[in-house]
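ok so heres the complex, two chains, lmk if somethin looks off
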Amino acid sequence: MTVVAPEAETGRPTGASPGPARPPRRRSRLAPLVLAAPFALLLIGTVLVPIAYALYLSLFTERLSGLGFDGPHDVFVWLGNYADVLGDPAFRESVGNVAVYALVHVPLMLGAALALALLLDGATVRLRQVWTLAVFLPYAVPGVIAGLIWAYLYSPSIGPLNDALPWDPLGSDGALPSIVNMATWQWTGYNMIIFYTALRTVPREVLEASTVDGAGPIRTALAVKVPMIRPTLFVALVFTVIGSLQLFTEPLVLRSFSSSVTSTWTPSLYVYEAAFISNDYGRAAAASLLLALASALLSALVMRLSTRRSR
Amino acid sequence: MNPSRRTSRWTSRGAVHALLLIAALYSVLPLVWLFSSSTKNVGDFSTTSAFELGDVNLIGNLRDLFAEEDGVFLLWVRNSLLYAGLGAVLGALICAACGYAIAKLDFPGRRALFAVTLTGVLVPTTALALPLYLMASELRVVDTFWAVFIPLLTNPFGVYLARAYAEAAVPDEVLEASRMDGAGELRTFFTIALPMMRPGVVTVLLFQFVGIWNNFFLPLVMLTDPDLFPMTLGLFQWSSRVGQFPQYNPLVITGSLLAVVPLVIAFVVLQRQWRSGLATGSVK
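and the predicted structre for the whole thing:
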């Protein structure tokens, strides 16, 4: 029979409805809320409210009234800030830069991560732990530090790359590949480990069946293993696309070493410039929200593609 | 088996290892460069070649690093440890509690909370930093410890993972038995469920530690007082001066080494934990 707990044990969390004969189910009403509340409050206070506040601010701009003797005051401008941002050639250029960056970085990094994961998953590899750990280590390096290390490696007379490469990694044509390399260096290992752990869950019987059918290791990898970890690949794709849109740290660090990275080189840099150098909070808020909206739409698109493909 | 097939297998095995070796060198050599450069003094830094060791001057560089601007670097180390250490412990606990509640308990708004959490995973942190700054300046908490600490506790992906761990690792029968024994829900969580979720929670903790330790945009936006800077922001500020003042080079490089070493050690030591944690998380 149901053992009714002593009140001292059960009553404390809820503090409600005293009496020893209380059915056990009722006592659990408040406890789940207590467990979920800290995160729920954080989510509201640090994600939802700031977004709503930025949305509100993005509809205003600071103007001088009359002859300007009263100082600046906020004017409601409807979507004027959004129009300003979208019409600003600097913003459009930053979107273009990030688009080219993402088109190079995303397939390069995820392709390398997948290829390495498939190599590691092959039967003949030795020292698996050593390889995975070595390739993973850059993930532990803060983005700023990774940026600094590579910036030094690119620098003339300090790093070896400036002499070794046929182009100038800090020059105007070199900035993009230099930044792609920084990000690829940091993220390949992390994604490789994610893919590798997913590959380990592919049932061995399926692979044996494929081998019995006469498929070689490369064929097995591409025709059997890759389709089976497709959900993992799409999740990684979503995160990489979102991360690419946010590109900020690497170009900012490179700015101290190279004049070819402008102060509005990516949308995130544009936001930073608008807020802290131009002190135009309305425009900065509008650009921030456009960035958030673009990543939401892109990730929804990728997710949509993933469900359609697997059907 | 015919000999030609065997040789091709041998060569492919060699090719596989060669590719892995190239990937490993690409990943590790920049870190080797960081180490070898942090042993050089200002003169050797630009005169010796990249991987060549000059007069070993690591101790001298460290002494300079901690003496610069009245030892502000030590404050940065302390701040990074506080932001990341406290933040990761508290954040992982909050994630575990919420993930467990979503997976195993019933409460009003459970589905809505999970839906908003999933959306939260997709909101880019850089897009959030400016709204956070605007709100913090409205609340007059800009340039305080809390302005950086509290937003970084929010880890929707950690909740998502914790929910997957709770579902995989905590059987309903065990919870039912604990309730039968008269333990309250909170007690059941802390004494029964949390220990069962441990590998997952350690993974969330480690990755949140890395996330906060490596975070840069939020402190950059929120802080102007150098005494509150984490290492990443402080080193960035020094690095922006190297163009004019090359004497900052060894400070930036030696400081970078110190910012990297703890995490590298943590990942090597806790390998088994995070590997198994990632495995559980990636299946779901």
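quick notes: DSSP finds 15 helices and no strands in chain B. thats all i got rn
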